[in-house]
Specification:
By secondary structure, the protein is mainly alpha-helical. The protein is built from ten helices and no strands.
Length: 192
């Protein structure tokens, strides 16, 4: 059976019409593509599509345990140059879907905070920016008592923004960080 769609709304209709085997195949193929793709920009686009799939999976009360495993495995990779693209794409995916996977991730919040701290102490601008995005998204969703666990990140995020402003060719990171800090302020004004 062939499916075509023009946007997320069309994809939702398409998703409803797919058989369980087709859905399983699509989910598996996108996970495989995200793992195997070497180009960081394409990997981000794959993860963006995975976010759309995730919206449909969770919107129809279906499950995708392999996605959660993929996220945890991505966050657990060694922090070296060959893994940075994979880690950044997992962070991008998390920032896109955290509201959907909140229940699966909240029990690991302290571990995530530790990982984010490591990422914010790394020297890679893109990694720090993606980490800022995830933190902003998480703070918009977690309960107030959990949001206090993130207060130590604020100086690091502000320092990263400052460093991006002073570095060359970091306009994209500046824009993304400013959006993240805006999300932080909107979600948790007292944290600043």
């Amino acid at each position: 059976k062939s499916f075509s769609f023009k946007g997320e709304d069309d994809f939702s209709e398409c998703w409803k019409q797919m058989s369980p085997d087709q859905k399983a195949c699509l989910k598996k193929d996108f996970l495989t593509a995200a793992i195997n793709e070497s180009d960081k920009n394409i990997k981000i686009k794959i993860c963006d599509t995975m976010a759309t799939i995730t919206e449909n999976v969770f919107g129809m009360k279906e499950t995708w345990p392999e996605l959660i495993d993929f996220i945890y495995q991505g966050l657990s990779l060694d922090l070296d140059d060959k893994n940075l693209g994979n880690i950044e794409s997992v962070l991008f995916l998390m920032s896109s879907i955290f509201g959907l996977i909140y229940e699966e991730m909240i029990s690991k919040l302290d571990g995530l905070i530790s990982v984010f701290n490591t990422f914010l102490n790394h020297n890679n601008y893109d990694l720090k920016t993606r980490t800022c995005q995830v933190i902003g998204e998480i703070l918009g969703i977690v309960k107030k008592k959990d949001s206090k666990k993130f207060k130590d990140f604020i100086p690091k995020i502000l320092e990263h923004i400052y460093n991006c402003l002073n570095a060359k060719n970091q306009d994209k990171n500046v824009k993304l960080c400013l959006l993240s800090i805006n999300d932080l302020i909107c979600a948790e004004p007292n944290i600043i």
